[in-house]
Amino acid sequence: MIKRKQDTILKVTEPAPLMDFLIAKMGGMARSSVKQLLGQRRVKVGNVVQTRHDFALNSGDVVTVSSGRGNSQLTHPKLKIVYEDDDLIVVNKQPGLLTVATTPGSKETTVMSILRAYVKKQNARANIYVVHRLDRETSGLLVFARSEELQHYMREYWRELVTERTYIALAEGILEPREGKITTWLTEDKRNAVVYSSPVDDGGDIAITNYKVLKTSNYGTSLNSQLSTINYQLVELHLETGRTNQIRVHLASKGCPVVGDRKYGHGNESSPIDRLCLHAKVLAFIHPVTEKTVRFESPVPKEFNRVLQ
Questions:
Q1: pTM of the model
Q2: CATH architecture observed for domain 2-66
Q3: Residues designated catalytic
């Protein structure tokens, strides 16, 4: 046992559940006290905060127990931390929450403002830096850097670092073929914040989306039609590029806009769900510090599947 910077550092010599290991190594600490340490996010395995009492330790692992109470737990109805280490924070956000403020000095609650308050509870000098963004109404996975240097690195080498980026959309209409690749050139009109798509190179940015229809169903009727049946499809999408509004524009260009899309589709006038039905399901990338691939997956929102039943 080594004391350093008020932390207790413990080396694992044989496989064991984290709870049993801590009880054995922390001077006979009660099970309830160990659960409290985990709940307060004061335990790390390697450099990753661990809250699961049944986490399986392997020989050679290093467990660090913080002696302070600085590691607060994030509690917010629209944001959950799914991964955290000394370099990065990966979160799962709900729809309706902006990634960052769109205007300087805005008082609106954003993912950035929530995380900044969270890290400053741990360390008043700490900060957080956005690596990429999701639209306000898109749910799912986002990664943030804990340093400006790391933010710049990840932004510059984002395409090289990301090994998998998968979205799930609930779309209107029938995609044909059911599996394929959409390639167009996108141009953003910043005056009205709309992205236009061209099937030929018109000077815009090339955008490539691979898609696959997972499930199709009929649901209800359109409110502004003569009781015609609407087809809904659950679509898996893999990005080769990451342009603004890329998925929304690409699906709309195929005549199958994302359900609830007010900008490129029919909005809520025919939608069975009061939200934009787009979700960032999988994010995998090479960790810029450890150089190991990390992969995160967020469940498909239940309301997407309910529409198809």
A1: 0.74
A2: Roll (3.10)
A3: 135
